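Here comes just one.
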Amino acid sequence: MDSQSSVPAILISSLEKKYDNGLQALHPTDLSIQKGEIFALLGPNGAGKSTLINMVCGIVNPSGGEVKVQGYDIIKEYRQARSLIGLVPQELTTHSFETVNQIVEFSRSLFNCPKDHKYTEELLRSLTLWEKRDEKIIALSGGMKRRLLIAQALSHKPKVLFLDEPTAGVDVELRKNLWDIVLRLRDQGVTIVLTTHYIEEAEAMADRVGIINKGKIALVEDKNRLLEKFGHKKLILTLAKPLNRIPSSLQKYELEIEGEGTSLTHVYSSVEEDMNLNELLCDLSDEGIMYSDLQTKKSSLEEVFVQLVQS
C-alpha cells in the first residue's frame, strides 16, 4: 500500500493564533481531515473560521502549532504544501484590467503549471465564464467575479479546496452550479473544506461537521451522528376531537396542546426507542384520545448548530 494513501489531507496539531494586542483568535486546535471528504466548518461571525483557513493556506502566520497538507509542513515545505491547495476567499478582490482568460492562466503560472488551453476552457465553461473569457475583470458583475475566484482556485488542479463563504451574495443558479462542481471534485478525490452561512448547504453536502466558537473547536462529528446525538424529533398528532387538558396519566410524556386543542406534540431525543412512542400511543388510546393524522419532524443541522453555539 502507498504510504501516502494513509496520510490525512490536512493534519492540524496545536495550531493557534494570538495577536500582539492579546486577542486569541484561535486557541490551540487539533484537527484531522481525510482525503476525499467534504468537511464543513461552521461557526458564528468572528468565531475563528477564516483565521483557521488562512493559516492552513499560508496567508496568516500561526503563533504556534503545526499544519501538514498531505504530509507536507506548510512552513518547512511551503511550496509543496501550497501547490496542493486551492482557496476561494470570502472577499472579492478581483478588480484588475486583465481578462478572465489571462487571470486564470496567470494563476496556473504561479504554481509552475504549463498552459493548458483545453483544461482552461473546460474550467471556464463549467463556471459559465467561457463567453466572458476576453472581458476585463473590472467590468464583471459581482456574481461573475465570484465565479472567477473559483476558477482561479481550481486553475492548478488542487488536491485540497477551501471554500470560505463561497456562495455569500450570489444567485441561486451559481450556488447550484458550484455545489455540482464540488460534488464532481469530491468524486475525483479532492478534499473540500467549506464555511457557509447557508447551513442547509452543509447539511446537504458535508460528510463531517466541525463547529467552532470563540476560537475553539467545540466538536467534530460525522454529520449524521451529530444529528442523531444532538438532534430531536417532534411527534405531531392531529386530534379527532379538540383536547382541553392533558390527563394526569400522560404527564410523563411532556406533551403540549397546540392549535386551540386540535393537535398534540411530543419532542423526544433522536435516539429514543420507538417502543416509548408505541407506549405513548397505547396510553392515548386508553384515555380515549383519538387522532386522525400522525407525523414526525427531525431537527435540522441549523437547529443543532444554534443549540451547540448557545450552550
Q: What stands out?
A: The chain is about 35% helix and 25% strand. The chain has two domains: 3-227, 233-310.
